Amino acid sequence: MPALRAYDTCETQWRVGAGGAVGLDYTACIATLTLYLPRWNKELPTADLTVPELLDDLRTIEQAMLTGMAEKAEKERQQRESEGHE
């Protein structure tokens, strides 16, 4: 699963603002993927992976992660509000 491998390699490259994670640092991800790609293509010669393809996959995973983080934050906010009103 090249996409998950790419995410696992770039998972420490989140940009964070006052409200939490805002997205992956693509510059760092491109540099990281460029570094690892030759080795991955040797390990999976039939995959013929490219940085643009992996970035597309990373963007899909990133969106899912951001959605999940937002949903979790909203549930926690609602829980705090309900606990405060009891």
Can you put this structure into words, describing what you see?
- Helix content is 71%, strand content 10%.
- By secondary structure, it is mainly alpha-helical.
- Strand 1 and strand 2 (20-24) form a beta hairpin.
- The mean pLDDT is 92.
Based on CA inertia axes, which overall geometry fits? elongated
Instruction: Enumerate how many helices there are, as a single number.
Output: 3
Strand order of the largest sheet: 1-2
Q: Whole-number radius of gyration? A: 17 Å
Order of helices and strands: HEEHH
Beta percentage is 5-15%
Mean pLDDT: 92
Query: Helix/strand-derived class?
Result: mainly alpha
For the termini, the CA-CA separation is 47 Å
Helical residues, percent: over 70%
Secondary structure tally: strands: 2
Assembly type of the shown chains?
single chain
Describe the sheet with the most strands. 2 strands, antiparallel
Low-confidence stretches: none
Topology of helices and strands:
Blueprint: H1 2-10, E1 14-17, E2 20-24, H2 26-43, H3 51-84
Antiparallel strand pairs: 1-2
Short description:
By secondary structure, this protein is mainly alpha-helical.
